[in-house]
Amino acid sequence: MKTKKVPEQYTDRKLSARYPTDLGSWQALKKHYRESMQRKTLRELFARDKQRPQHFSMQAGDLLLDYSKTHVNKTTLKLLTRLAREASVPQAIDAMFAGDAINATEGRSVLHVALRSKISDTVALETEGVRDVWKVLTDIENFVDAVHANTIRGHTGKKLTHIVNIGIGGSDLGPVMAAQALRPYWSAGIHFHSVSNIDGTQLTDLKAELDPASTLFVVCSKTFTTIETMTNANAARQWVAQVLGEGAVSSHFVAASTNHEAMDEFGIAPNKRFGFWDWVGGRYSLWSAVGLSLALVIGMQNFRRLLAGGRMLDQHFRLAPMGENLPVQLALLGVWYNNFFGAATQAILPYDNRLARFPAYLQQLQMESSGKSVRMDGKPVRCDTGMVIWGESGNNAQHSFYQLLHQGTRLIPADFLLSAKTSGGTQVQHKLAIDNGLAQAEALMDGFDEKGTSPYRVHKGNNPSNTILFEQLTPEVLGQLIALYEHKVFVEGVVWGINSFDQFGVELGKKLAGGINKSTNPSTRFLLDKVR
Ligand code: F6P
Prior knowledge:
The protein has helices at residues 12-16, 24-37, 42-48, 52-55, 74-86, 89-98, 112-115, 133-148, 170-181, 201-209, 227-244, 249-252, 260-266, 292-298, 300-319, 326-340, 358-370, 394-398, 402-407, 427-446, 475-496, 507-514, 522-531; strands spanning 57-60, 63-66, 162-166, 191-195, 215-220, 253-257, 273-275, 345-350, 388-391, 414-419, 465-470. It is built from 23 helices and 11 strands. It has a 6-stranded mixed β-sheet, with helices on both faces. Strand 3, helix 9 and strand 4 (191-195) form a beta-alpha-beta unit. The protein folds into 2 domains: 20-86 and 320-500, Glucose-6-phosphate isomerase like protein, domain 1 (Rossmann fold, 3-Layer(aba) Sandwich); 130-303, Glucose-6-phosphate isomerase like protein, domain 1 (Rossmann fold). By secondary structure, it is of the alpha/beta class. The structure holds 6-O-phosphono-beta-D-fructofuranose. 6-O-phosphono-beta-D-fructofuranose (F6P) binds at residues 168-171, 221-223, 226, 229, 282-283, 368, 503, 506.
């Protein structure tokens, strides 16, 4: 096994000298913002250059990014690209693909890219576990095919037609988001459900709806100790045992985890345990055995298409120069609005209801990764890091929070996600959705302020947005979209000097919950007394 190497640019000595705010490019960007961009409107930028969409757009794989409606010109791009180089982004990308321990606070490699690679890509092949990736995929494939062929069936002989993913965080959001996004690819007669919250209501509702004899629970947990998941898994196990008998448990439960002992203890049959590795972060785990419930629903061929989409973006990210690199560009635009324009939040607006959970998925991906205030070297950051990410599918959002985007006081950059072809509605309906998305992006940019317009009706405009355009929401495209944002988050973290791959911030609340009855906090005591 290869000894994990902490890349040199991440060592304390190097990092302390690399506050992004100290970099020449950062200082130049500050000046450029103050002198050229702060007061420039998007309308003015378009008036000066009608070819902005041609000059400020780029393509990778099946994704087209149009960022012409952002406050950038050629100088901005030059400086942002310089920032990426000065912040050692190219070296960080190499370090990730080489399997170096870039998750330095936990001493781990970060290799979700290996999960969707081909062996010929030689992604960190010497790192323990990487060479097992393809074997686990084959195991998953055999299992999925056997369930579909009805050669693996329920305890009473019934076909397993209802797949229930039990997990939380990355072990829930990925399968749930992707299962909804890829609804047209579901295998006939197979249905997807999920249980995540600890309060038990999701399982209660499912119990009323499902027959345990045709239900397969997929317990998904990297650690297999997460209280929400274990509580729900035990409740589901109890239900199956009560209705079908204890002997039925092994036929109705499979699991994805790195904790083989705990899967054993739970009663997961040896041929129904699908492993992965410590170098797969929870929020980056859809590509691993955590994708099992999704694979069961969309079939292995489509799951492999999702992986192929991720790989396509990986190859682009690994090889494209900084100035032509789509995830790098998206990250630099994020830094530009976050750190120079002071935008605190970003909206994600997919105009396809199948992507309704994509904003929630990106919330965990970006906020758990970038919600950090301490750098890799243990010192406080000197600039803002992760933005608040939020959003909703297009027209629902228009009738909810767009008012604030159009007439509120805050600068909120948005990502519009649009497809040329429908993923299931009629062409007429799809056209309406896309027309709405385009109209909103235009209105946010142009605003509305004709002579004599009442002040209440003025839209100030000048709200920036990216548009990510693709032909159709296929498994390959979804894979590319996820990988795009994964790499975007990584690049932002490298610029800020933080570790995007740990999540110590979620530990404290978990620890406190166990002993809350003994809390001496007056407010907690007051509320506990009321509740209990
Ligand atoms: O919420 C914190 C977290 O650790 C996430 O990062 C992770 O996706 C989730 O909990 C679930 O963890 P596990 O897969 O170990 O159950």
